[in-house]
Amino acid sequence: MAQQLSISILSGKGGTGKTTLAVNLALSLTNVQLLDADVEEPNDYLFISPDIKNKEEESVRRLIPEIDAEKCTACRRCVDFCQYNALALILDNVLVFEEVCHSCGGCKIVCPENAIKEKARELGKLRHDKRKNLDFWEGELNTGEEKAVPVIEKLKTKADHNKNIIIDAPPGTSCPSIAAITDTDFTVIVTEATIFGLHDLKMVIEMLNEIKQPFAVVINKAESDSDFLIEDYCNSEGIEILMKIPFSRKIAELYSNALPFVKEIAGWENKFKALAAKIIEEAGKNERNYSN
Amino acid sequence: MKILIPAVKVGSFETEIHENFGRAEFFAIVDSENNRLSFISNTAKNQSSGAGVAAAQLCVDKEADVVMGYHFGPKAYQALKAAGIKVLDLDQQKLLKEAYNDYKSGELVEAQAGPGAHH
């Protein structure tokens, strides 16, 4: 089968509607895979697979150094080597701060005494549920862990390119967000029509332009008297607004009951199908730009 | 006793204490034997990650007996305690002399590890 489209859903801050968009879009399409990469707070499962904690689970581990105190001569080379300050030499003992370690393995290489071994540390979990028409995966970072990227990268190894892939990315502009959207064909940014929404939208756009990622915008909680905040900006920048999800009590109530509104309010399934068609069209434009 | 206090600049006992430990600009070093004051640059302040650990390492390397500040992250705190350094909490003090005077009169209490910086 031909390679299908991969779409990442992103926002500048949490609480703008990424989950709403990702879930409802996924449920409007067939042959689709949804990857919830918002690993610090994955909540797509509430709408897709409420009992996912009982489903297939996979541990995400990474290697961190373990110091053999017998062999260590406190020469300090590992401490000086570590760019992340995950190691400290205190009273001739090397302390390891596991959460800060980036698992580069360099300390082990520079140790002249062969006193460093690596051990696996679990930093998160992947969970999987195969629903009718929808293959669903989520990544979750364990409480207290700081490094989201390895969980996201592991989650993305589950991508099935025979399906249309939707990735719900972590909000923001830092490494986890970039890890989630990298190698997706197109990014949809969700924003609210508020001054804060516009501010965070601009930050995300600056980042996407930096990494040359094609994108367009969806306005959530759209209202006729404030949409101009986003519309004026997008018009002046030549950015496409693909859809507006209205600020509606009905949609909010359904959301609070973990019911995807695409299945509950007539007409929305077609709107999301039209959105997918627009995304394919926009992504296609970009492909042509690449070939020029 | 060798006492390290985060400082905003190289100055005197009138200099302000820096609000941050790991990313302080400088550390003031006070020798309580002779009340002498000196300053060192905080080489940890521009580290992209683990500034608290690196600043603690600096305090250990400078053989501090006491470190004081407004806030210590969990990793910096752990490193300082592992070195047997006394970690004291500052609160209302603004200037180095206020922190040092309160230390001498025994008014400072042991610090607790607070939440670290968010990444």
UniProtKB/TrEMBL annotation, chain A:
UniProtKB keywords: ATP-binding, Iron, Iron-sulfur, Metal-binding, Nucleotide-binding
One GO molecular-function entry: ATP binding
Domain of life: Bacteria
Domain named 4Fe-4S ferredoxin-type: residues: 63-92, 94-121
TM helices/strands, residue ranges: none
Alphabetized InterPro entries for the sequence: 4Fe4S_Fe-S-bd (IPR017896), 4Fe4S_Fe_S_CS (IPR017900), CobQ/CobB/MinD/ParA_Nub-bd_dom (IPR002586), P-loop_NTPase (IPR027417)
Matching SUPFAM superfamilies: P-loop containing nucleoside triphosphate hydrolases
Protein name (Swiss-Prot/TrEMBL): ATP-binding protein
From TrEMBL, chain B:
SUPFAM superfamilies registered for this protein in UniProt: Nitrogenase accessory factor-like
Xref: InterPro entries: Di-Nase_FeMo-co_biosynth, DiNase_FeMo-co_biosyn_sf, MTH1175_dom
Domain Dinitrogenase iron-molybdenum cofactor biosynthesis: start-end pairs: 16-104
UniProt protein name: NifB/NifX family molybdenum-iron cluster-binding protein
Source organism: Halanaerobium polyolivorans
